[in-house]
Design goal:
The chain is an alpha/beta fold and 442 residues long. It has one domain. The protein is built from 17 helices and ten strands. The strands form three sheets. The protein has a four-stranded parallel sheet with strand order 2-1-3-4, with helices on both faces. A four-stranded parallel sheet has the order 6-5-9-10, with helices on both faces. Helix 7 crosses helix 14 and helix 8 packs parallel to helix 11. The protein is globular, with a radius of gyration of 21 Å. The two termini are 27 Å apart.
Length: 442
Amino acid sequence: MKQLVDRRYETRPVENWNKCRELRQQYYKDVASAKEQGKLLIGGSTGGLNILAQGLKNIVWFGGETYAATVSADPAFCYPCLEATEAEGFGRDTCVYFRNYFGSMLLDKYYFGGPFPKPDLFLQSHICDVQGKSYQAISQYMGKPYFCVDQPPGPPDEKRTEERIKYYAGQLLDAIEWLEKTTGREYDDERFARAAANDWEASRLWAETCLLNQNIPAPLDQKSMLTLFLPLMVLRGDDRSVEFCKELKAEVEERVRDGIAALATERYRYIHEGIPPWHFLRLFRILEEYGAVSVGSLYMFGMAGYWDIGDDGIWRPQRPFKDLGVELKSREDIASFYARVYLSNINYRGSFYSAANKNMQVLQIYQQWRSNGVVMHLNRGCKGTGGYMLENRLALIEAGIPVVSYEGNAADRRDFDEAQVIDRIESFAESQGLTKIPAPKG
């Protein structure tokens, strides 16, 4: 680390940043104008059953989590939403994304202007203690049809994997029948197959992009990646998500080849584990003043990327869809493939159910991405992603890895002590022998 203290790498903005913003803006415009365009607006989790819903023509998927995270960055809009939900009897220990989304609906205010876009129906997957019940409450309040699929993820080496896949695939087929009956529309299996293949391709391309961040200097920082993965999340299964991920990967490969750094003064690498505080992403910039760059996390890599972890513990992106030898000829074929991807593939949701599995994956990422330390958010706002964080911290400490944790809430600034967090992370940086780097003259 010492030899890098005074070194400055070349850096430049990410060229695909503007395209990412354009896709984001267009997505939220499409949500607001869905009914004007004669399209069906379907509500549910951002990473839920988007793919399945695309078997229907002329639909827009309104993902609640990404919208709620966006809301959280603006206290003037966020606080009234949270208070409106709490006034309905929901406690502050309830999922913070639900509280922001539900409050926005109660106030009938859309963050991007106009009235709240009310979905025509809700199609939800239940992956943690609160998700299925959250959207059930929303649908009941709106008086809209609701269908929930139980998604039973677990460790990928679990012996019951095949049974779980069969169970999940059967529910997906039931959901398709429900969609046809509820909407009166014909379901197109070819559209479903294309969406499933697109989802696979975009997600593995994202994994390949994340893998490039092993390079020194890191071509991307996690704060930027938290924005750059948005098209993949809100446009899952869409051709546009595949196109964007291809272009982004090509650009990051070029940055690696040319030695372009996300942080010109990189001299310390860390992973930031857990959902970040969306209202205080400045946390990453504070550590950059010390030459410390966040190269990723289990949340960042696993939430959107499709990986294959070998017996050697090395994270490798999944193969291209065309190399899988999978033929999606029937509805049953597609449902089984989709179920297998979500239940067998390495993704963040599997860590909800096993401290040992999550401990292992965080340690693998720390080592493979050539990190020096770990910053950990003890997030009160999410029961799923916040699970096992203290066990993770203890496992890292026992492995001799420098760790600093801070308490907070990903989307409720009222549960966040900014001064205390800044003090903790700056003290951590100094404990690692880092000092603030003076800005270059001129």
